[in-house]
What we know:
alpha+beta; five-stranded mixed β-barrel
Amino acid sequence: MFNSFTGKVLVYNDSLCTVDVGGVEYALTVSATAARSFSSGTVQRVIAYLHHKEDQMKLYGFVDEEERDVFLKLLKVSGVGPGLAMKILSGLNAGNLKAAIESEDVNSLSLIPGLGKKTAQKIILSLQGSIARMDSGSSDGPYADVVNALADMGFEKSLAKDTVSSIARDLPIDLPTDQKEERLLREAIVQLSRKGGS
């Protein structure tokens, strides 16, 4: 199972990008939202999902774990396949889509090309509770362990999460995970202490 690819990203249009990882180029179908977020020609991490059917395998790419999580939730709705799920995420980013589902905003959903009012209502009925649980669950991103460790030390969790995310953007992408988490924790403690976050 692929979790992500880190390499040189080339964006071809609103639904396709490739990632060159060590000379092997992976083609991923993406949402328009993700395509706009990627910087073509730069080295980036693309969250991935391999959709496997009897007759084909296809890679899908996402800007972050939240977008992939929402995509996977959409696939559980009867009548929603990966193609339609990507169209939905192209029409509304993950955050706005979750807000529309929770507020039962059928009109916003049904404005998405290819998504009728009946399917929009089905999505709301199927996902309203589970989308809410996603936000109350593991929403601390890829460095949840570091954020939780900081929270256990007495730092305010949302501030810890923002600080860790900010530091992570400046770390070398090829740094091993254990070293990255160690640096994140150490630097976050320094920054949060300066802010008086404990």
